[in-house]
Design goal:
The complex is a heterodimer. By secondary structure, chain A is of the alpha/beta class. Helices cover about 40% and strands about 15% of the residues of chain A. In chain A, about 60% of the residues are buried. The mean pLDDT of chain A is about 95. Chain B has seven helices and five strands; from the N terminus they run ααααβααββββα. Chain B has helices at about 5-15, 25-35, 45-50, 55-65, 85, 90-100, 145-155; strands at about 75-80, 110, 115-120, 130-135, 135-140. Classes of the chains: A alpha/beta, B alpha+beta. Chains A and B meet through helix 1, strand 12, strand 16 and helix 18 of A and helix 2, helix 4, helix 5 and strand 5 of B.
Chain lengths: ~525, ~160
């Protein structure tokens, strides 16, 4: 039986992968060919999806992008034997876009059936947990600290320090909460790992539980990701069945329970304290800090709140050691970051690489420039609260500190590309409007400031007292930056001011660089 | 709109099964909306009673979250992504076109009750913008022509 891989990833499905899988199954069986269709995650080369990979005697051979009408000619050409065809791509792992990555966290995504625990085990799965079970809690935390891992959700706080705080907080109950409320435009790495290798997240959370003595975990998943929910629940069920979750994990006497909870379309719930409020069944209003969630978190108990990619990076660290992970990267940005190329880009997709590559290399060498073929004018990195970068900044290395030095954020590694048809005053206005829409409303600078921000930008663009209103906009941004309770209001000025500073002509201003 | 008395047993059943769950309000609201398509305003009384909350608190939670709705949706819900990545790929033109084709604005339902239209901020399909969903199905690289074809299929399937 020849194994054929067709993705179950949302993006592949959005391009017709389901129909291709069905057509292939039907047509193969009506031709009397024996093919077993495996629904894998995506390799992340989205311009080639739906991608069909075939296991042959010469290794895995790919074809793409495959549409339903291509299925018959492909089968006739000898798809199941890896024969030539115009859509033939050879071994996908040899394509530069894939080959030049450092896939640590995404090692299995696109390779295996995501919800098959035997395949997970056969591809180094649960080796990290096995090691962790043999270690003391403090030793697990030490490995994580040594790895240099910083939270991949955006704030880049050292994960080891957070874990250590929870470890040392005395309590009868502690929690592990996975922030899977990835709501930033241009980000999809959380979604891809949850759909493409859910066990790695489950393993990471289980290790986190062992590290700090927490027996219950929650994955707070955004409601916009129905396919991720299905994959997670299938994997959780398999993990329970095979003794990797629940009581007495692998006869160790340790317990860890895990459950998926759905959000309800509120961006602010990606902020950790809003998320905890939401998990408790309340409106997602931001909490004052301190106390930190590590001390007083979910239901008032010490809680680790980590992003999906942070937790999914844990198994490889515990498998190969903190030092191994730390050897990737530059400066204080250690390990790898799964970058996401989106928007107006020719070769969009997921690209996991050690910190330090420049944006230009990524945009042109791998991304292939804009999809429209027009010049790239502005690139927003790190989601809707990230700064817009102009061409002169494309040589900045992807590193937390290098980005901070140019008043930008690397955040979650989401990269949204705009060509020269973009109007940056519109994008600045949209950033404020988004804040109006998504503010939790608890603090005034964010709630009122964003509404006034939209009005002030409108006045500038209309030419009403331009200079005076520009000063007012800067002043307002200052108030939001320093007066907001959380990043929603505090970072909305990043896209707004970067648009104003780098692209003043779109606001009807003349190179009024501040 | 349906009479709440016919829906009440469903609501009570959902409340009953979630009794012991910590932080159960969101799972309960999801359960009701998944089953009935929306959260009937009259259900707030029962939810509040069951969880020992005030009706204002329950209403406050329902209205805080964009996803929850208190009116019945059309047969199919179309969600259009309005976020930056989709904007970079002509998402705004698509949004205008969809509103025109359906003859409705966001948060409205067509007169024939077939389609409801909702905005959404990111479907995680940013690599293939612009994106929409029809019910639970995500669609990428949606042009105005592709949308018209999709609309025709859904109307045909009706």
């Amino acid at each position: 039986m020849t194994r054929v891989f067709i993705s179950r990833d949302s993006t592949a499905l959005s391009l017709g992968a389901e129909q291709v899988a069905k057509a292939l199954e039907q047509q193969a069986s009506s031709k009397g060919l024996s093919a077993e269709i495996v629904r894998n995650g995506s390799r992340g080369l989205f311009w080639l999806e739906p991608l069909v990979e075939v296991e042959t005697s010469q290794g895995r051979v790919s074809y793409g992008p495959v549409q339903v009408e291509d299925v018959a000619p492909l089968l006739d050409a000898g798809l199941l034997d890896g024969k030539q065809h115009p859509l033939y791509l050879g071994n996908i792992e040899e394509i530069a876009y894939f080959k030049n990555q450092n896939r640590l966290t995404f090692a299995r995504v696109g390779l295996t059936d995501p919800v098959n625990i035997d395949e997970y085990l056969a591809h180094d799965g649960y080796r990290g947990l096995k090691n962790a079970l043999a270690l003391q809690a403090t030793e697990i935390v030490k490995q994580v600290t040594d790895s240099g891992l910083r939270g991949r959700g955006g704030a880049a706080f050292p994960t080891g320090i957070k874990w250590n705080t929870v470890l040392n907080a005395p309590a009868d109950q502690k929690y592990i909460v996975c922030n899977a409320d990835e709501g930033d435009s241009g980000t999809f790495s959380d979604r891809m790992i949850m759909e493409g290798d859910p066990f790695v997240l489950i393993e990471g959370m289980t290790i986190a539980g062992l590290a700090v003595g927490a027996t219950q975990g929650y994955i707070y998943l955004r409601v916009e990701y129905p396919h991720a929910k299905i994959a997670l629940n299938q994997a959780i069920e398999a993990a329970y069945k095979n003794g990797y979750l629940g009581e007495n994990i692998q006869n160790s006497g340790k317990t860890f329970h895990l459950e998926v909870r759905s959000g309800a379309g509120a961006y602010i719930c990606g902020e950790e304290t809003s998320l905890l409020e939401s998990l408790e069944g309340k409106r997602g209003l931001v909490r004052f800090k301190p106390p930190l969630p590590a001390i007083v978190g979910l239901f008032g108990k010490p809680t680790i709140v980590n992003n999906v990619i942070s937790l999914a990076s844990i198994p490889v660290i515990l498998d190969k050691g903190g030092e191994y992970y730390k050897n990737y990267g530059m400066g204080r940005s250690r390990g790898t970051l799964p970058l996401q190329l989106a928007g107006n880009i020719k070769h969009p997709g997921l690209f996991e690489v050690a910190f330090g590559m420049t944006l230009r290399e990524l945009l042109y060498d791998y991304g292939g420039g804009s999809a429209s073929g027009r010049p790239i004018r502005a690139v927003q990195v790190g989601g809707p609260l990230g700064a817009y970068l102009h061409e002169g900044q494309f040589d900045t290395p992807l590193d937390y500190e290098a980005f901070a030095a140019i008043s930008a954020v690397l955040g979650h590694g989401g990269i949204v590309v705009h060509d020269d048809t973009v109007n940056m005053a519109d994008m600045a206005r949209y950033a404020m409007e988004f804040c109006v829409e998504e503010s939790c409303g608890k603090c005034t600078p964010c709630r009122i400031g964003s509404t006034r921000g939209v009005e002030v930008i409108d006045r500038i663009v209309e030419g009403v007292q331009k200079d005076k209103n520009t000063v007012l906009l800067r002043d307002l941004c200052d108030t939001m930056t320093y007066g907001s309770l959380c990043a929603m209001g505090g970072m909305t000025p990043f896209p707004v001011l970067s648009a104003l500073n780098h692209f003043p002509e779109d606001f009807g201003l003349q190179s009024a660089k501040a | 709109m349906q009479d709440y008395q016919t829906q009440k047993p469903t609501v009570l059943e959902i409340l009953n099964t979630h009794q012991a769950m910590p932080g159960n309000l969101l799972p309960i609201l999801h359960g009701i909306q998944d089953t009935l398509g929306y959260i009937p305003p009259a259900a707030v009384v029962d939810i509040a009673k069951s969880l020992n909350l005030s009706q204002a608190e329950v209403h406050g939670v329902i209205s805080f979250y964009h996803y929850f709705r208190e009116t019945p949706p059309g047969e199919h819900t179309i969600r259009i992504c309005r976020a930056e990545s989709c904007q970079a790929m002509n998402g705004k033109a698509l949004e205008t076109h969809v509103k025109q084709q359906l003859g409705i604005d966001f948060h409205e339902t067509t007169a024939d009750g077939i389609f409801s239209l909702e905005p959404v901020y990111c479907l995680g399909n940013c690599a293939c913008s612009p994106s929409i969903t029809i019910d639970d199905e995500v669609m990428g690289r949606v042009t105005t022509e592709k949308f018209d074809r999709l609309l025709a299929t859904y109307k045909g399937a009706k």
